[in-house]
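User: Please fill in residues for this 147-position structure.
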C-alpha cells in the first residue's frame, strides 16, 4: 500500500470517533438535558466551559479536510488539466480551512468576551436554555474523548 493511501486510510478512520464526540456533545446532551444546542451555546461550551473541546473540533476539521484533499488530489492527478491547476488547488486547500478556523476563533473570542451572562443567552428564537451552574458539569462530561 502506498504511503498516501495509508495516510488517507488512517485519517479517514479517525473521522468517525471525532465526529461521534461532537454528535454526543450536541444531540445526546440536547435529548438528555434539554439544552438548546445553538451555535452560540456551542461556542460558549467550547471557548468558556470546556476549551479542550475546541481543539477536538479543530482536529476533526483538519483530519476530514486532509482526508478529502488526499482523495481529490489522487483522483484529479489523472486528469490532463489538473497539472496546471495544482497551485490554485493547493492555495484553496490551505485557505479554506484556515479561513474557517479564523471565523471559529473570531466567534469564540466574541462569546468568551461577552461571558455566559444575560446578553449572551439571547438567540434569534429567544433565550437559550443554558444549564445552571449546578448542572453545568453533567452535560460537559459527555463531550470529551477522555473522561
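Assistant: Residues filled in for all 147 positions:
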Amino acid at each position: 500500500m502506498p504511503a498516501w493511501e495509508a495516510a488517507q486510510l488512517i485519517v479517514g478512520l479517525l473521522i468517525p470517533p471525532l465526529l461521534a464526540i461532537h454528535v454526543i456533545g450536541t444531540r445526546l446532551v440536547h435529548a438528555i438535558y434539554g439544552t438548546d444546542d445553538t451555535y452560540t451555546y456551542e461556542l460558549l461550551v467550547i471557548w468558556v466551559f470546556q476549551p479542550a473541546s475546541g481543539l477536538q473540533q479543530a482536529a476533526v476539521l483538519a483530519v476530514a479536510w486532509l482526508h478529502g484533499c488526499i482523495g481529490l488530489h489522487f483522483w484529479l492527478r489523472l486528469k490532463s488539466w489538473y497539472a496546471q491547476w495544482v497551485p490554485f488547488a493547493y492555495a484553496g486547500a490551505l485557505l479554506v480551512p484556515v479561513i474557517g478556523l479564523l471565523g471559529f476563533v473570531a466567534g469564540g473570542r466574541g462569546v468568551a468576551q461577552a461571558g455566559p451572562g444575560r446578553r449572551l443567552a439571547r438567540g434569534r428564537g429567544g433565550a437559550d436554555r443554558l444549564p445552571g451552574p449546578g448542572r453545568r458539569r453533567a452535560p460537559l462530561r459527555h463531550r470529551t474523548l477522555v473522561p
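For context: The two ends are 35 Å apart (CA to CA).
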